[in-house]
Design goal:
Blueprint (H helix, E strand, L loop, with lengths): L7 E5 L2 E6 L8 E5 L9 H7 L1 E2 L2 E2 H7 L3 E7 L5 H18 L6 E6 L1 H15 L6 E7 L6 H9 L8 E5 L6 H7 L5 E3 L12 H11 L2
Parallel strand pairs: 3-6, 3-7, 7-8, 8-9, 9-10
Antiparallel strand pairs: 1-2, 2-6, 4-5
């Protein structure tokens, strides 16, 4: 599939973001955050991962008139670094947005853990993150130190609807335990995240988050 160049690129405290509006400017923002667990997320490779020849999640977002902000974190050492990066993304998106439409944010792996902390910290400081939906895609389990830091900011954000992507083949008792903090479960992921977004997963995410 031919790659599509972003309209804008933002430099972040620990990473970068590429902006793919469905038209010319950000109106209905959908933020997608990569997984920095194994090292820096390479922007071109991340963009290619969501543009799989069998199903392009980027194209599906565009067809739904959603404006993609693709975030490639460079590090994942601390929750603080994640917060500084994601806070910049959120506030920049709000500033660039030509509407009052809320944000939907989907984050993968350790990115999902960093997002959970960031949104909860926003709320603990009474800062409006304007995020209506968050999607946690195979979130990394927090360490004991990270659990303590999460507890200091309320553990979970309260404002957004919280969705979790179900791992294929997970026994029901494990699924019930791992998803108890979420409002709904989204099925359709491929084993080992290959491809990163199946058509079923993409459709299920859009059905739950598009307003």
């Amino acid at each position: 599939m031919t790659s599509v160049a972003p309209v804008m690129q933002w430099q972040l405290p620990f990473g970068s973001a590429a902006v793919f509006p469905s038209r010319d400017r950000i109106v209905r923002p959908f933020v997608l955050i990569g997984d920095p667990a194994e090292g820096p997320v390479e922007p071109a490779a991340f963009a290619q991962d969501i543009d799989d020849p069998g199903y392009s999640f980027r194209a599906a977002l565009k067809d739904a008139r959603l404006d993609l902000i693709l975030v490639s974190p460079s590090v994942s050492r601390t929750l603080e670094e994640g917060y500084r990066t994601f806070a910049e993304v959120i506030m920049r998106t709000i500033a660039e947005r030509l509407s009052s439409n809320p944000l939907t944010i989907c984050a993968i792996g350790r990115g999902a853990l960093l997002l959970r902390y960031s949104l909860a910290r926003f709320e603990s400081q009474r800062i409006d993150h304007q995020t209506e939906c968050m999607v946690s895609y195979y979130s990394t389990e927090p360490t004991m130190q990270e659990i303590a830091a999460l507890d200091e900011v309320g553990s979970w954000p309260m404002r957004p609807m919280k969705y979790v992507v179900a791992e294929p083949g997970m026994p029901q008792q494990n699924l019930d335990y791992q998803t108890s903090d979420f409002d709904d479960v989204i099925p359709g992921a491929a084993p080992d995240r290959v491809p990163l977004f199946t058509r079923e997963l993409g459709n299920n995410i859009l059905q739950r988050t598009v307003r």
